Structures
1.
Amino acid sequence: GVVMERILRRKSLQLRSQQQDWQDSLEGQKMIEFRRSLPAYKERDTLLRAISENQVVVVSGETGCGKTTQLPQYIFESEIEAARGATCSIICTQPRRISAMAVSERVAAERGEKIGESVGYKVRLEGIKGRDTRLLFCTTGVLLRRLLVDRDLNGVTHVIVDEIHERGMNEDFLLIVLKELLPRRPDLRLILMSATLNAELFSSYFGGAPMLHIPGFTHPVRAHFLENILEMTKYRLTPYNQIDDYGQEKMWKIQKQTFRKRKSQIASAVEDALETADFKGYSHRTSESMACWNPDSVGFNLIEHVLCHICKNERPGAVLVFMTGWDDINCLKDQLQAHPLLGDPGRVLVLACHGSMASSEQRLIFDKPPDGVRKIVLATNMAETSITINDVVYVIDCGKAKETSYDALNNTPCLLPSWISKAAARQRRGRAGRIQPGECYHLYPRCVYDAFADYQSPELLRTPLQSLCLQIKSLELGSISEFLSRALQPPEPLSVQNAIDYLKTIGALDENENLTVLGCHLSMLPVEPKLGKMLILGSIFKCLDPIMTVVAGLSVRDPFLMPYDKKDLADTAKSQFSAREFSDHLALVQAYEGWKDAEKDQSGYEYCWRNFLSAQTLKAIDSLRKQFFSLLKDTGLIDHNRESCTTWSHDRHLVRSIICAGLFPGVCSVVNKEKSIMLKTMEDGQVLLYSNSVNAQEPKIPFPWLVFNEKVKVNAVFLRDSTAVSDSMLLLFGGKISRGGLDGHLKMLDGYLEFFMKPSLTDTYLCLKRELEELIQS
Ligand code: ADP
Ligand code: MG
C-alpha cells in the first residue's frame, strides 16, 4: 500500500512538471492562447469551485464555447496542480462515437500529447487508452457497459455526461443509474453538460443541483426562409417532368399522407405552404427505391441552386449543409461533383461529414481550405452540437432529421426523416455565426418553422426498448417497469411491456422476468439481442464464419448500393449473389466472400464497381468481423487457441437456421399466388418487401416462411432483408432454445400453428413431436 502510494505520488508530480513544460513551450503557449480565447475560460474558476462544492452540477452554454474540450481539461489540470493527477479518473461521455474520437484527439493535442497517454477514448469495439490514461472520452454505451462489471464505478472521481439536451436513450438511462449511485459514492462528482438552456429539468431531477451558464458570443445570423430564398436566388420551380409524372405523383401523395399523420397543426401549415410555394416542382431524387423513398427529403436541385448562389454572389466562408442521412449526403455529393462550378476542385471543396468517416477525412473538415477555395460540408444533425467547424458562415438547413420513432401499438419501429424542433433549427442557424455575421437558408417556409415543436421528444419515448431492458436486468436494477418509471420522462407502459415480451420470446428472460443464461451472454455482447443470439449460436454450431458476416452486415449497413439511375442493373447484380437461395443475408455472405477473394489479387475495387458494392462498407464489415471474433474468444464462447474459423461449416441450411433463430419472431408466411406472392405477419397482416430484396424479384418463393431483420412502416409495412426458411427450421430454431427441451419449445409455437394454419407446418410439427417421443421412450 505504502509503496503504491509513493509511486502514484511520484507519477502525479511527474505529470505536473510535464504539464508545466508543455505550457512553457512555444507551441504550448500558442495553444493556451487559443484556449483562453474561448468563452468557457472566463468561467473556469467558478466552474471548478462549483464542482468541488457540489456533487452534481449542470453546465449549459452555446455550442463552441468550450464545454466538451475545455471543462474536462480544467478538472484534469486542477487535479494535476493539486498533485492528484495520477489518482484522479475522469470519464466524459459522448452520445456519438465520432465525437468521442474527435474530442479526445483534440484534447490530447491541446495538452501536447499523443492520444493514449493521459487522454484516451473508448467507443464500441475499439479505443485507444493506456495504463496512465486519466481522462477518458467514451460513448455513453461504453460507460453503461462498464457499470455492468463495476457497479460503483470504483476509482472514478468525475463523471461528465455531455450533450444531455439531446435526450438520447442511453443518456436518460445513465442518469437513472447515476442518480441511484450518487448516495453510495459521496465523493463522486457528476457534471451534466447541455447546449441549450433547459437546465432546470436536469437540475430538478437531481434535487435542485446548481446550474451554471457559460455566456457565449456569437455573431448575428440572418435567417432566410423558403419564400425569400426562391425570390433571392431566382429559383424556378419547374413543373413535373412528363415522363416521370406518374412516379412523382404517387410519391407526392404519400408525402401528403405522411404529413397528415403528423400533428395536425404541422400538417396544415405544411400543406398551406406547399400550395403557396408550389412544392410540386421540388425535384425529389434519392438513391433509394420507392419503398425506402424518403418522403420528406429535400430537393437536391434546390440545395445545389442555393450553393451556386452562395459561391457566385457571397463573400468567402465555408458552407454547412444539414441533411438527413448518409445516403442523401453521398448522393448529393455525387451530383455536385458533376456540376461545372461546384465540382471544380480549384474553386470548391465538398466534404461529407458523417459518423462512419475515416479520421483523415475528419481532419479536412476542421482545416482551412486553400485560398480561393470554398469549403462545403454536407453533414447530418451531428454537426448541430457535437462538432464545431469554426469557419462556417453559411448554413443550409433542410429542416429534417432522421428520427427513430416507435409505434408501440403495432410494435413497429419507424425510421423517418421528420421535422426538427425549433431548438434544433435555432441551433443549426447559430452554426453560421462563429467568426463573423452569417446567413442561414432554411429550405422551408416560415409557417412550417412556426409549427415546429419547441424541443425534440426524448428518444426513450420513441424507440424499442429491448437492449435497454436487457441491460437493466443484467445490472440487477430490479423490476424493469419500476426502474424505467424513475426516468426523467418515463416511457409508455405498453412499450416497456412489448420489450419484455420480446425478450421472453427469444429466451433472454424467463417467465419471472429473470435473466436466463442466454440473456446473460447477450447482455455482454455489444450488439442487438437478435444479432448477439446469432453470434452465440454460430459459435455453438460451428458455422461462425458466414454468421459473423451476416451480423456485421446487419450492424454496419447494407453494402449493396442502390444508385437511383442504375437500379435495375444493381438489383440484377445482387440477385446473382443470392443464386436462388432466396436470402438477402446469404447474398451478402456471397458478396463479401467474393470481395475477399478479389482483394487477394488486388481487384477488390473493380469487383465492387462491377457488382454495385460499397468497398468502404465491406471494409467496415471486415474489421467488425475481426472484432467479433476476438470478443467471442474473450467471452470464452470459442476456443482460445483457434486462429480462424474459416474451416468451420458453411452449410447453407445450418446458416439459414441460425439466421432464423436470431430473427425470430420476425417471421412472415409466404403464400405463392398466381401472379404474386402474398406475405403476412401475425401483427400486421399483409406486408411488402423492399424492392431491393432478392426475394422481391422472385416470381415464387419455394419456402413457406421468410424471416426478416427489420420492418418499417412507411405507407405500408415493408420488410428489409429477408431469408427464406423451412417449416422445420422455424420449429426447431424459432423462439427460445431452452433446456426445458424440444417439447416445451414446440408448444410455444402453437400460436403460430393456429394463426397461420399451414398444414405443412402442422405436419412437420407432429412429425418432430413423434420422433421426439420415440427418442424419449428409447
Ligand atoms: P462545446 O462543447 O461547448 O460545443 P467544444 O469544446 O467542442 O465546444 O469546442 C471549443 C472550440 O474548440 C471550438 O471553437 C472548436 O472549433 C474548437 N475545436 C474543437 N475540436 C477541434 C478540432 N478537432 N480541431 C480544431 N478545433 C477544434
Ligand atoms: Mg460539446
Note: Confidence is low (pLDDT under 50) at residues 237-298.
2.
Amino acid sequence: MTLRNSDFDEIRVWDNENFVHPWEGMEHIGQNERTFTETADGIYVTTEAGKRLIDGPAGMWCVQIGYGNGEIADAMATQARDMAYFSPFNNANSVPARLAHEIAKRTPGDLNHVFFTTGGSTAVDTAIRFVHFRNNILGRPEKKIVISRQKAYHGSTFLAASVSGKERDKGWLDQAQGMSYFLPNVNPYIRPEGMSLQAFLDEKVADLENAILEIGADKVAAFIAEPILASGGVIVPPKGYHKRCLDICRKYDVLYISDEVVTGWGRLGHWFASEDVFDIVPDIITTAKGLTSGYVPMGACIISDALIDSVSGEKSQGATFSNGYTYSGHPVSAIAALKNIEIFEREGILEHVREVSPLFQERLTALGDFPIVGDTRGMGLVGCVECVVDSNSEDSLDLDKTVGARIDHHCQELGLILRPIINMCVFSPPLIINVSQINQMFDIMEKGIKLTTEDLAVKGLW
Ligand code: PMP
C-alpha cells in the first residue's frame, strides 16, 4: 500500500495511542516522534519521507541476507497457501522436521535436538526450563541457580530477563527470586590500569569458579553466556575465556548454555560461533534472529544428545517436558529458515563475511583515533564505538548519556542508521554488505563523530 506523507500524521497518532513499543519510556508514552520505515531493499531502508538509509544494525542484528528477498517471500507465500499452520502438539510436518535436521547438521558436537520457539527470549526460557526439568528428574531439585554476567542480555520473558544483567533494565520489573547470580563485567576495556589482559582473563575465569564454590556446585545448574556480549556493548572477552569457563563448568557438573541469538547465522562468519570461533562445544545453544534473517519470527533451543539421553526412556520416570508454544516449528517460519540457509550456501554468505570482516574491523579500529572515542571493539560484522566524553571517568552512567544518540542523529542525516546505547553506538549490518558499502558506512560514521564532537564543544561538554 502506498501511503502519502499526510497519512503518516494520522498513523503517528495511532502508533502513539495504540502501539506500546518495546522498552517504552512511560514518561513520554504517547508523545513519540518515531520515524516510520515502510520499504527496504538490500542493506537499505526507506523512511516515510523517502530517505534511503543504510541499516547499520540490520534491524535488530537480524536481517542477515538483506531486505526484499523475493525467494524467501515467495516460499513463505506458497507455504501459507499449502499449509499455513499445523499443530506441533498433535501432528508432525515435513517443513520443521527438515529444518531441525538442517540445523543439527550445522551445530557443533552432539547438539542435535532442536526445540523450536517464537524468538530468542523463549529459546532462553526453554533452555532454563529444560535444565531445571532435567535436574528434577535426576533427583537434585536444589540444583537450579543459573550463573550469568553483568551487562548480559538474554531476553524479555520472566526467566530470560531474570538471567539478564543490565542494571538499567532491572529497576522497575520483578525478577525470579534467588534463581540467578551475576559475575562481574568481562569487558577488558574497563580493567584496572596496569592489569595485563592475561591477568584480567585469569580473574574473570576465577570469578566463575569462585561463584560456583561460593553458591555450592550442588546448587548451580548452568552458566549462560553470549559468545560476544551483544547489546551490553559488543563486549569481546579475552581469548580463551569461553574455553576455560567451559572447563570450569565440566569440573563442577554445571551445564554451559551458549546464547547465540546474535552470534549465530553468519554474524562472525560461521553458522555458529561457539565451536568455530571460541572453540567450545556447549550443552545447549539458543538462537533466533538470523535463523530466518528476520523475515518472520522463529527461535530455537538446541540441546545435546547427551542431555536428552540422560533423561529419556527408563531414566525419564515418565516425565513430560511440558513446555511449548502454539507456534513451535511454524511451517511458514520454518520454510523461511530453510530458504535462508539455502541462500546462505548458494551465495557463499559465510565466506563473504570472513572476507570483508578484516576491512570492517580495520575501519572500526580507526574510529578510535577520534578523541571522544574511548574504545572500539568488535568481531566479524559487528562493532561498537564507546565514547568517553568525560575522560576522568570510564563509568558510562557518569558520561554524557546522549552522545550515542547524537552520533546516530548525525549519521541518519548523512544516510546511516546506528543503534545508540547510552555513550555507545553499536552496528551489525546485513551480511551482504559489500566493500564499497562498508567504506561508505564508516565514512559516514567518521563525519557523524566529528559533528558530534563539534556539538559537544558548543555545549561545553568537550
Ligand atoms: N539473547 C540475546 C543474546 C539477544 O541479543 C536477544 C535479543 N536482542 C535475545 C536473547 C532475545 O531475543 P528476542 O528479542 O528474539 O526474544
Note: Residues 6 and 237 are 49 Å apart (CA to CA).
